[in-house]
Amino acid sequence: MIRSPRHPPGRRVGHLLGAYGLAALAALLFLAFSLALPDTFPTLDNISAVLSSQSIPALLALGATIPIVTRKFDLSIGYGLGLAHVMTMRLIADDAWPWPLACLTVVLGGAAVGAFNGVVVEFARIDSFIATLGTGSILYAVTGWITDGARIVPGPHGLPAAFTDLYDSRFLGLPVSACYVLALTAVLWLLLARLPLGRYLYVIGSNPRAAELVGIPTRRYVIHAFVGSGLVVGAAGVLLAAQQRIGNPSVGLDYLLPAFVGALLGSTAITPGRANALGTLVAVVVLAIGLAGIGQLGARFWVTPLFHGTTLLLAVGLAGYTARRQVRQRRKEPPRALPDLPKVTS
């Protein structure tokens, strides 16, 4: 029996830092801001407020993670969020639809938009950056057409209490919106890390040609990834409507950059070198702590986009470095037999 070579201590330490360094950074940031702001930052009210306010960016970051697994990018998520948000308000406030039917319609509409993105990318062979930027612009135009550029404001009776409770209520002492994030993270972790679907998506992302050679229908699974992203965007739009209680046609774009910062930065944690749900969650926690801390320290309004932009550049740089480092390590290791992939049924 051939024993696998033991990794040197320095390499094991490097692996631990790469996998859990971002989580350690979150703990250090929380400690630093708690020491600097002992009366306001480490309080339960502040923690609850941060969890609630960052739930929608976290959902979008998890949604963006799904296509990134296949090395595709969905730049339409911000525009889709805005459209889902105003459509929810339009159906409930203006057209008097029952709120469960309106929410279901919007979520399924998000899935349809995701399917359209996937078809354009895979069958029209348009780069995902360009394709989803184009569809996003179309979604923004539809949003403007629906609202005529004005906000949708509910009537004197307001919105149904059961609908607004989708965001305002609590579960096990936590804001229910934070529970949605944890639930979605668990579902994506199961799909990507434990089920054949995730293995197919990762193979497609690492080597599409090899995926085709082993019989994986790459087009179908890439479309599935975009559909998953669209479902999450639709659900996030419903939650945003329950949070804001008015329809703002331009609100979605504010969430685009934070979503990609979280998704790309998350690819450097837990399983460095590839997008993963747990890493995205850790990245969102780091961003939430950082934004809350600098906000309480009295940062000016322009510090938030500066923080996001700088973090995005850092995330892309770290993700590229991690991927190159893994390639160099694989070249140094002796060849190993490839694991058997589950059979793909048509």
How does this structure look, described?
By secondary structure, the protein is mainly α. It has a domain at 41-252. It is 72% helix and 1% strand. It has 14 helices and 2 strands; from the N terminus they run αααααααββααααααα. Strand 1 and strand 2 (174-175) form a beta hairpin. The longest helix has 30 residues, at 303-332. It is globular. It starts with 8 loop residues before the first helix and ends in a 14-residue tail after the last helix.
Q: Main β-sheet, in a few words?
A: 2 strands, antiparallel
| Helix content estimate | over 70%
Strands in their spatial order, largest beta sheet? 1-2
Report strand %. Answer: under 5%
Topology of helices and strands:
Layout: H1 9-36, H2 44-53, H3 55-69, H4 77-94, H5 99-123, H6 128-147, H7 161-168, E1 170-171, E2 174-175, H8 176-194, H9 196-206, H10 208-213, H11 218-244, H12 256-266, H13 277-296, H14 303-332
Antiparallel strand pairs: 1-2
Helix pairs in contact: 1-13, 3-8, 3-11, 3-12, 3-13, 4-5, 4-6, 4-11, 5-11, 7-11, 8-9, 9-11, 12-13, 12-14, 13-14
